[in-house]
Design brief:
Helix content is 29%, strand content 23%. The chain contains seven helices and 13 strands. The strands form two sheets. The protein has an eight-stranded mixed beta sheet, with helices on both faces. A five-stranded mixed beta sheet has the order 3-2-1-4-5, sandwiched between helices. A hairpin with a 5-residue loop joins strand 9 (191-194) and strand 10.
Length: 266
């Protein structure tokens, strides 16, 4: 049986379960847009955006590499935050290989602001950060920082620690062939600076944060990398993604952690 036919059958079964249980929403993860059903309840689509607009469709462009469990939990948090579903209500989810039932609850450490940051460049960098968390560099854990957007101000509040390996090159995060190049420089101390178009401007950039002027707080046990990430995200309009050597991926905005996830635990 073809994978697409398998997905179609699972989606049909998910619709049946939704109707039997009187579930309040259907979450479709990674199934091609041509299989989107007609239903009166809200439908949340994770993955490729559907071709046809519909008043009951919502689209959440999260990277599928987060894994089904975490995508379902994020979907739950998103729907609660946007009033699509109430905590404790049932929803049904379907992927190309599974159908499941979930009670809506906030199980992921994520703030509502996280969802407003989801756009193509951010999605690509988050996916790369997850890959680094899982793979490391040459099998060894790696910690790094990605600073996305507001590059003029970020550059103004930082300096180069080592010669910039990306100077003079047009390396873009949207080009999947460049990912290994970016990973090769993740061992450098300092941050990657990525503009709003996805171009990697710098690596090995030290973030100059005067913590006497910028008041930020991070949870106990987090060190200088996370303080710097919190600081630059408060000082500028940039959004910052960090990867810890322990594998935890965090997203910072306005000086706060708005997303925290450890891919190694799932």
């Amino acid at each position: 049986m073809k994978e697409s036919e398998h997905a179609r059958i699972l989606l049909k079964k998910a619709i049946e379960i939704t109707n039997v249980l009187d579930a309040k929403a259907l979450v479709i993860i990674g199934i091609p847009p041509q299989y989107q059903p007609k239903m009166e309840i809200p439908i949340l689509i994770i993955g490729k955006e559907p071709d046809k607009e519909s008043s009951n469709f919502q689209h959440l462009p999260l990277p599928l590499s987060l894994g089904s469990k975490n995508l379902v939990n994020l979907a739950s948090s998103f729907m609660i935050a946007n009033g699509i579903i109430q905590e404790g209500e049932l929803f049904v989810y379907v992927t190309p290989s599974t159908v499941g039932i979930q009670k809506a609850e906030k199980t992921v450490e994520v703030r509502d602001e996280f969802f407003s940051q989801i756009e193509h460049i951010f999605q690509e960098v988050l996916e790369l950060a997850i890959e680094l968390s899982l793979e490391g560099r040459e099998g060894k854990p790696v910690g790094t920082i990605f600073v996305i957007g507001d590059t003029r101000n970020v550059i103004r509040h930082s300096h180069q620690m080592v010669p910039n390996p990306f100077k003079g090159y047009k390396i873009n995060i949207l080009d999947r062939n460049t990912r290994e190049i970016i990973k090769e420089f993740a061992f450098l101390d300092g941050a990657f600076i990525i503009n709003k178009s996805g171009r990697v401007l710098c690596a090995g950039r030290y973030l100059d944060i005067d913590f006497k002027k910028i008041n930020v707080h991070v949870p106990s046990g987090l060190g200088g990398r996370h303080l710097a990430a919190a600081g630059i995200s408060k000082l500028t309009k940039a959004i910052v993604i960090t990867v810890s050597e322990s594998g935890i991926v965090r997203v910072f905005k306005n000086g706060k952690i708005i997303f925290e996830y450890n891919p190694r635990l799932h």
